Amino acid sequence: MTVYESTGTFDATQSTFKLDVQTTDISPDEFYISEYYNICDANRYAIVGILQTVDKNDTDFTNYPPDANLLENDISFNKLNKDYLEPGDKDIFSIGTSDKIDVYIHHGIGFDPTTNTDDNQYIINYKAGIYVHLTAGSPPGKGGVGMLV
Predict the structure, then answer these.
(1) For residues 60 and 24, is the Cβ–Cβ distance under 8 A?
(2) Tell me: the pLDDT tens digits for 51-108?
(3) What is the pLDDT of residues 21-61, one digit of tens each?
(4) Quick check: helix, strand or coil at residue 109?
(5) How many CB atoms lie within 10 A of CB 14?
(6) Alpha-helix runs per DSSP H in 3-142
(7) What's the predicted TM-score (pTM) here?
(8) Distances (CA, A) of 3 to 77, 108, 143
(9) HSE (side-chain half, CA atoms, 13 Å) at 44
(10) What distances in angstroms separate CA 125 from CA 3, 40, 49, 103, 139, one per listed residue?
(11) CA 57 to chain centroid
């Protein structure tokens, strides 16, 4: 799967965000974000969204065209999984209009970091700013631009 373009808009006053992720049309199946992880560290704001398919389609979409969009609106900062936060990490609730937030979309069919060590390692790597392909997992996602309103 290739995520071709993605944009994010963060509303600091409402503590919400929305994403527009360009994907591939896989009708009748469809993509969704199964989980959002807060992966802020002491130096940056960051989140990762896990892109999956409703029917657990395991087709290799790498060479499919960018002909669809997944729109996610009004996602509360409270929905972010906080399992990877550590003392001293930035608080996403304190973002301001001049702050940058890194957003990663990871395509992972059956992604479950609680039962799969490779999936867990992906999140740890994203938090550290490392983007490597693990042999037992899908290739890492791509970053996109975002803005604060």
Answers:
(1) no
(2) 888 888 777 777 788 888 899 999 999 999 999 999 999 999 999 888 888 888 888 7
(3) 888 888 888 889 999 999 999 999 999 999 888 888 777 77
(4) coil
(5) 11
(6) 117-128
(7) 0.84
(8) 23, 12, 9
(9) 11
(10) 18, 12, 14, 14, 12
(11) 19
Contact 73, 13 (CB under 8 A): no
Total residue length of the chain: 149
User: Is beta strand 45-53 parallel, antiparallel or unpaired with respect to 142-143?
Assistant: unpaired
Task: Please answer whether residues 47 and 29 qualify as being in contact, where contact means their C-beta atoms are separated by less than 8 angstroms.
Answer: no
Place of tokens 């087709």: 59
d(CA 53, CA 56): 5
Cβ density class 63-90: b for 16+ within 10 Å, e for less: ebeeeeebeeeebebeebbeebbeeebb
Q: Which residue has the tokens 């669809």?
A: 68
Q: Which pLDDT band holds residue 141 (cuts at 50, 70, 90)?
A: very low
**Considering Cα of 114, then 119, then 122, then 123, what sign does the dihedral take?**
negative
- CA 47 vs CA 31, 68, 119, 135: distances in Å: 18, 22, 15, 23
